[in-house]
Amino acid sequence: DSEVPSEVDGILVERRFNIDDIIKVGDIVAVIEVNGEMSSEEKSEIIEETPFAEEVVTELESNIETVKEGTAAPVQDYSSSERFYSPLVKNIAKQEGIPISELDTLQGTGKEGRVTKKDILAHVENRKSGVTIAATKEAAPQLTPEEKAQEEPSVQQPVAAVQTPRQSNQISTVQTVGGGEIIEMTRMGKLIANHMVDSISTSAHVQSFIEVDVTNIVNWRNEMKDAFEQREGEKLTFTPIFIEAIAKALKKYPMMNISVDVDGDKIIKKKNINIGMAAALPDGNLIVPVIKNADQLNMVGMAKVVNDLANRSRNNTLKPDEIQDGTYTVTNVGTFGSIFGTPIINQPQVGILALGAIRKMPAVIETAEGDFIGIRHKMYISHSYDHRVVNGALGSMFAKSVADYLEGWDVNREI
């Protein structure tokens, strides 16, 4: 689901995986020869497997010699363009007679909008079939002959397959039929879907809900956020406050900081408190970066880690180890206006806490002089837990511990 650029210039001599293969972290995906020449037998083998490989191999072989001499490799002249194009993309464009003006209109799905091999090949295929991809939001899409036929009354409605660019690093096939669309899920979307279904079939989900008065926290943050941002160069959001409360509750109730082994008959008690923070990506998918040893961070450190992980999640620049080894997860459904939710457990963990939207609510306030009605800032927290190993008492006490910590917030706290 991500484009991984080669770290060296050279000749591809072995490709060990195919598209959509599931690869373990650390596996070698390809072998690149950086010195010497490729045998004609090896070259023929690659040419048979890869479109345009003959031209690419020839170009790369010449590039090796020029790189050794410290000069730039000769490529098709697209110097009039301000965009970066890899030698492979330029070579394919050259072979297909794609002018620079046309190449510049392509919407790339690579990092920072770069045109990838997949993008240029999809464009070449569409050129041959008469389908034009809308390169920008302003460009009006052109219909294929099959799609035009759908606009006219007909006994049989054909299905038109169109290659369309997506926000993620995938090219997805969209099929139009009967006035609707069938859109293929992205690679990441399929992984998330399978993970959610597996969780439901694995864990016995139970939920507990608690209303929390966070008026003290709202007032404290309003007083502190400007000075904090000026001093630390970081925004002070509610998220680090909530995660601090969850970390303290996990320390108080360590049997929430566990997992169940694959056989389902052993409990693994975790030493570290690593809290996953569900983050929405621009393409609608989710990713869960992990705050390692969250219980050891002060508020300044927590705010910086939270902001850094959130920003790099949106920019798709997280490292593999930053989304691993979580022991508990929190998701902020209130960001999208939800009052509360019933989140699905992030396996193999046994609990996940959903944070609802903070709202101004009328509430009964108890004082020594009697009760009266006042305006308070309130929210709901929803705790989903695995009833195989967490009973209702523990699940509810854990959520209550989070609520008590938030409601007892010291308005005079300094950071």
| Quaternary structure state of the chains depicted | single chain
Secondary structure: number of strands: 16
Q: What portion of residues belong to β-strands?
A: 15-25%
Shape: elongated
Alpha-beta classification? alpha+beta
Mean pLDDT: 82
Provide the gyration radius in Å: 27 Å
Give the helices and strands, then pairings.
Elements: E1 11-15, E2 30-33, H1 40-49, H2 53-68, H3 87-95, H4 100-103, H5 117-129, H6 145-150, E3 160-165, E4 171-177, E5 180-183, H7 187-202, E6 205-213, H8 215-232, H9 239-252, E7 258-260, E8 267-269, E9 275-277, E10 279-280, E11 286-287, E12 290-291, H10 299-314, E13 328-331, E14 351-355, E15 359-367, E16 370-386, H11 392-407
Parallel strand pairs: 9-13, 13-14
Antiparallel strand pairs: 1-2, 3-4, 4-5, 6-16, 7-8, 9-12, 10-11, 14-16, 15-16
Keywords:
seven-stranded mixed beta sheet, 33% helix, three-stranded antiparallel beta sheet
Descriptive notes:
By secondary structure, the chain is α+β, with helices and mostly antiparallel strands. 33% of the residues lie in helices and 20% in strands. The strands form five sheets. Strands 6, 9, 12, 13, 14, 15 and 16 form a seven-stranded mixed β-sheet that branches. The chain has a three-stranded antiparallel β-sheet with strand order 3-4-5. A hairpin with a 5-residue loop joins strand 3 (160-165) and strand 4 (171-177). Helix 3 packs parallel to helix 5. The longest helix has 18 residues, at 215-232. The radius of gyration is 27 Å and the shape is elongated. Residues 49-56, 62-71, 133-143 and 145-172 have low confidence and may be disordered.
